[in-house]
């Protein structure tokens, strides 16, 4: 193999730490976040919120499943799960069989299920419903997101909230401040003999001149970034196949690669970056047809991303301060449609995970027979959950963020286990 030098490699590829990691003028790069961690590290006792958006309207009844309820079986003869198929949670409910990792967290009281969550006068439009969830304003349209308003009231520092999604979601846009953005792109470094040679070039050499020493640090930074952020693990054809599968039912947006997004978040938390709120997403939940296989695949992906993320965070003091909130813009109708899917509905479950979460059921399970125009009736206002995490995780005054809404779920967030 041709001898590789630092100068020839950098000249050939144009790679420097700044060049490889910079992601645009409106976004932050790795160096900026690491500098912030060094200059103003996150208090190890500060709560951190990770918001997971499931775009498309996840079917709550096939996520937290009343499998033994005759009304459920009658309404969904082809879609219904049988009692022996679900992961039993008690009270006649079970998790989707694709969520085995979350069932383990449930057994350890690290998973809370808030039932029947929605908002007054529900809207079946993806656009309007997601706007309501992200702005926390069900009655009037407002131009700011609920975490964006929290940013406005908490010092107007954009690094206090970071999105690792492809675009900055509206929930992180305030009136005077917007969150920072660092999308997961995946860094591809050379493999094989070339890769080994390149990695070796990052080692310091006694007596080398400053230019070569700086190049070595750049190479070392790149490998460290791939280790923490995660590289691009698949080739293009594999990615195309995965995207085609993932995008079935994905008409309402959302990011892909949830595990990669959460890996990045975990690395930033562990590094002490002074960020208090993160946003990640998974799309594909608009399951009007062939729902059962599509949704179970997506819930398996959700489970495979969330479970190791929470397990990893359990291993560090800063990680133990993280609370994860999982929501979708609405649930689905009780009755299946003619295409073995479900149409846009209303109430659905929210998940919260972490060491501070008081695991178990919260809120009342909606009736499957006492419906509102064929929709489940909302039993928990989503703003109650927001107010809880604002107050108990972020240490904020919910009323200043949620237009005076201060009602909390008192037993949802407690002390670390």
Automatic annotation (TrEMBL):
Q: Which domain of life is it from?
A: Bacteria
**Which InterPro entries does the protein's record reference?**
DUF1501, TAT_signal
Name of the protein in question = DUF1501 domain-containing protein
Q: Which PROSITE patterns match?
A: TAT
Pfam families cross-referenced by the UniProt entry:
DUF1501 (PF07394)
**Protein keywords:** Signal
Which species?
Amycolatopsis oliviviridis
Q: Where is this region: Disordered?
A: 232-255
Signal sequence span is 1-22
